[in-house]
């Protein structure tokens, strides 16, 4: 790319930069984009760039593969019920150690390496996330259901120029630590912040009309269409809770929610700074 083309790219991005300047965007980071070193590096560069051009970006992360690895090291089998990790007392300790410790601080360090100013947080900091035991037909152990999100600590970080990096562990009134689904946490945080966008990074192209054909991507969905898409079986399985998070965030004031293909390098920039995008947008 020559200098003229570089200049043209920047000029073309100007309307999008203007639109997002000063706006809050919540990104849930996970999937292959979190495992692949190359993709992780690309995502962190995108986040730093977005922050430097004035986007008030909040990064919410999971860390399932790292939790699985640590449990394997101590001879404990990972167990899932309805897509959620069964979390006994020992697993809860591992989740806290891995998410609020290693994964969170690794991301903060990587953002710093690329020139970002990040602050690692978890749901327990400033009582950001208040939880109770999740009610379900099958006991999930210490899996939490969010009862309240207190955004002050997040806003304080943003107002002081930091990128808040949030791991999804929290404690109840008695101090018991709970594991929280990262998609759910990101949606509730975005709603409380009245974010412009909620972006859920995944390992899939987006919502497909035919699950076996990535060319059948549905680029845009109205929330009113979702029940019918579920009845048709187009939204099914693990996509249902993800899309329910998108719908909830829209109904609570978020302007746009997106399921984004994290396997594509710089997918955040493509989605936010071009007309085409690379995922499915919910409005």
TrEMBL record:
Cellular location(s): Cytoplasm
InterPro entries in UniProt: AceGlu_kinase-like_sf, AcgluKinase_fam, ArgB, Asp/Glu/Uridylate_kinase, Glu/AcGlu_kinase, NAGK-C
A single MF term (Gene Ontology): ATP binding
Broad class of the protein's primary localization: cytoplasm
E.C. code: 2.7.2.8
Biological process, per Gene Ontology: L-arginine biosynthetic process via ornithine
Record Pfam families: AA_kinase
Domain Aspartate/glutamate/uridylate kinase: 24-260
Catalysed reaction equations from the record: N-acetyl-L-glutamate + ATP = N-acetyl-L-glutamyl 5-phosphate + ADP
Residues of the signal peptide: none
GO cellular component, one term: cytoplasm
Domain of life: Bacteria
Annotated binding of substrate, by residue: 63-64, 85, 179
Keyword tags: Amino-acid biosynthesis, Arginine biosynthesis, ATP-binding, Cytoplasm, Kinase, Nucleotide-binding, Transferase
Enzyme class: transferase
Residue ranges crossing the lipid bilayer per the database entry: none
UniProt site (Transition state stabilizer): 28, 242
Pathway named in the protein's UniProt entry: Amino-acid biosynthesis; L-arginine biosynthesis; N(2)-acetyl-L-ornithine from L-glutamate: step 2/4
Family: Belongs to the acetylglutamate kinase family. ArgB subfamily.
Stored HAMAP family: ArgB
Function per UniProt: Catalyzes the ATP-dependent phosphorylation of N-acetyl-L-glutamate.
The protein's name in its UniProt record: Acetylglutamate kinase
Species annotation: Candidatus Egerieicola faecale
């Amino acid at each position: 790319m020559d200098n003229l083309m570089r200049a043209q790219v920047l000029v073309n991005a100007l309307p999008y930069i203007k639109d997002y300047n000063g706006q809050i965007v919540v990104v849930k980071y996970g999937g292959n984009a979190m495992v692949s070193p190359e993709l992780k590096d690309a995502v962190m560069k995108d986040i730093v760039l977005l922050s430097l051009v004035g986007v008030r970006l909040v990064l919410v992360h999971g860390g399932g593969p790292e939790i699985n690895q640590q449990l394997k090291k101590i001879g404990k089998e990972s167990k899932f019920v309805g897509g959620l990790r069964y979390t006994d007392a020992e697993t809860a300790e591992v989740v806290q150690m891995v998410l609020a410790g290693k994964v969170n601080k690794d991301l903060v360090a990587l953002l710093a390496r690329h020139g970002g100013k990040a602050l690692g947080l978890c749901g327990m900091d400033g009582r950001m996330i208040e939880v109770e035991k999740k009610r379900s037909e099958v006991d999930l152990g210490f899996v939490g259901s969010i009862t309240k999100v207190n955004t002050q600590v997040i806003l304080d970080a943003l107002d002081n120029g930091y990128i808040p990096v949030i791991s999804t562990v929290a404690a109840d009134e008695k101090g018991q630590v709970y594991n929280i689904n990262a998609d759910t946490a990101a949606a509730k945080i975005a709603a409380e912040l009245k974010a412009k966008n909620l972006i859920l990074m995944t390992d899939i192209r987006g919502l497909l009309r035919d699950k076996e054909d990535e060319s059948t991507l549905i680029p845009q969905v109205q929330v009113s269409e979702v029940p019918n898409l579920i009845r048709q079986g187009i939204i099914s399985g693990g996509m249902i809770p993800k899309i329910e998070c998108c719908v909830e965030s829209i109904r609570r004031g978020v302007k746009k929610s997106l399921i984004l293909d994290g396997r594509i390098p710089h997918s955040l920039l493509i989605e936010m700074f071009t007309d085409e995008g690379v995922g499915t947008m919910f409005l």
